[in-house]
Structure to design on (236 residues):
């Protein structure tokens, strides 16, 4: 088993006034050659956007872009004609493929929106751009790992162009469970949204990240009421 630990306070940070953001991996003006990616997981940004502010129209290509709102409402518009609002318990994937333009704004004027912006390298390049969004029942992740992203149309979760599976869990203090790797050779990057957890004997706190690979399963224990995101991705 191999692991890499990223404590919350060691993330790259930028405050642009309207945007307060933390970068687990190198992004924009934050460059750390030891933190370029975890397997095909390229970006994990923890964004807080002021009321009415946001990211103007900009392009992407050949990237799977996942947005997970933790609080507030995020308005999305893109060159495929989608105009949507994503809220807490929603998960959105924009499969940029050959190229797409989009914008993201805080829908509300009176409160911040906090969301995780995640980029994953695609399995197949230059595909037709695709948009996906689903709403998930938060009751189904209490002491359970709820699948929110999958590469298989027939499985639960928003479809992704990669051999990747994401799960969210709301774990009560003292609850223990295991996560079994779904695709041989994959690793898991765990991000603690809130609370304290122990994964394979490694203690983690709010906003810490832990990458684990060369392993078949992970053991998880909640050391307080905790919320966690597990991202299983190919390492090559």
């Amino acid at each position: 088993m191999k692991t890499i630990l990223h404590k919350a306070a060691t993330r790259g940070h930028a405050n642009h006034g309207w945007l307060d953001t933390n970068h687990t991996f190198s992004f924009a003006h934050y460059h750390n050659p030891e933190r370029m990616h975890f397997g095909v997981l390229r970006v994990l940004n923890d964004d807080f956007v002021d009321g009415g502010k946001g990211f103007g129209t900009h392009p992407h290509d050949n990237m799977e872009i996942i947005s997970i709102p933790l609080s507030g409402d995020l308005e999305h518009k893109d060159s495929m004609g989608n105009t949507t609002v994503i809220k807490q318990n929603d998960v959105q994937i924009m499969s940029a493929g050959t190229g797409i333009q989009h914008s993201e704004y805080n829908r509300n004027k009176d409160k911040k929106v906090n969301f995780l912006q995640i980029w994953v390298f695609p399995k197949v390049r230059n595909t037709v751009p695709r948009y996906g969004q689903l709403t998930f029942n938060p009751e189904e992740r209490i002491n359970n790992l709820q699948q929110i992203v999958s590469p298989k149309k027939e499985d639960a979760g928003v479809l992704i162009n990669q051999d990747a599976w994401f799960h969210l869990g709301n774990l009560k203090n003292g609850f223990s469970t295991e996560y079994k790797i779904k695709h041989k050779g994959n690793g898991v990057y765990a991000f603690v949204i809130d609370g304290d957890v122990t994964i394979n004997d490694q203690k983690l706190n709010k906003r810490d990240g832990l990458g684990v690979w060369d392993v078949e399963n992970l053991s998880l224990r909640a050391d307080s009421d905790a919320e966690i995101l597990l991202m299983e991705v190919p390492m090559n």
Notes: Residues 14 and 84 are 27 Å apart (CA to CA). The mean pLDDT is 97. The chain has two domains: 12-135, 138-234. The first strand starts at residue 2 and ends at 6.
